[in-house]
Amino acid sequence: MHRVIIDTDPGQDDAFALLLAIASPDVEVIGVTTVAGNVPVAQTADNARRIVELAGRPDIPVFAGAAGPILRAPRPVPEIHGDTGIDGWAWAPPAHPIRPEHAVDWLVETLLREPVGAVTLIALAPQTNLALALRREPAIAARIRQVVFMGGGYFEGGNMTPAAEYNILVDPEAAAIVLGAGMDVTAAPIDCTHSAPAPIDWSMQLEAMDTQVGRACAGMMRFFERHGIAKYGTPTRPLHDAIAVGALLWPDLFEGRRCPVEFECAGQLTTGMTVVDWLRQTGKADNCLWLRRCLDPAELYRRMQVELSRLPAT
Ligand code: BDR
Ligand code: CA
How far is Cα 227 from Cα 232, in angstroms, rounded to an integer? Predict the structure, then answer.
């Protein structure tokens, strides 16, 4: 059983990740923290509340966090995710209020209160909230069981610049703080997610579930794929953040290697690059399990759909 906090910036692929984690009988989501990323933080907090409500779980608390990266300007991407971040479905406004605490305060309090090794952090966005929490209270690092993050790319390069993937590019200093904190970290980079595009008829399969979640997911998938297919010329696209949750749930479907990983914070052409010492040439200590690829994408999406079908039909 994984007791998790999800830090996120929904994002259609974040929405799938949240729904998957909530649906899984092997996961207990104790809270969702949101951050500025794909869209501004007020919108990501709204979106997270809409998503937990869609899943029939308005009791899962949602906390809004940082309004921008530690040192840099926010970098919203409505051209990818739409103006709301979760375009593709006619969402009603969230019915329940946002929790009043700041996400960073809640993270620190919760991680100090929970037993050592009890909580896994799933990071699906720029890692600003986690870095601020670690700076505020470094003792939380030793209490976290594991961090699984979606971000970075080495073999695949970047998806925002030739060198950098979005979540790392937006706040490379935050990612460096998180990876430098000595925790057990697993990365689901675009090396891994690009190896697992959704099945060509995935949105039709979701629609055929004939549930509200299935219809919302089908709409989001169609919207999410439009930009990606035009950019990459592929017939379909991977649900990056949902794949990171899949990596936690089903490690048998992934292949990777522990190795030293660092982030470029000051490059002229390479800011936000993930420098992976895959061949262990630096002599530095391994600090990350770098998932290089998914071994069976069809099975991954099949299992995702089984989980999503557990969510309420209306
Ligand atoms: C990551 O960037 C965001 O746009 C997605 O939600 C995902 O977390 C993929 O590079
Ligand atoms: Ca995301």
Answer: 9
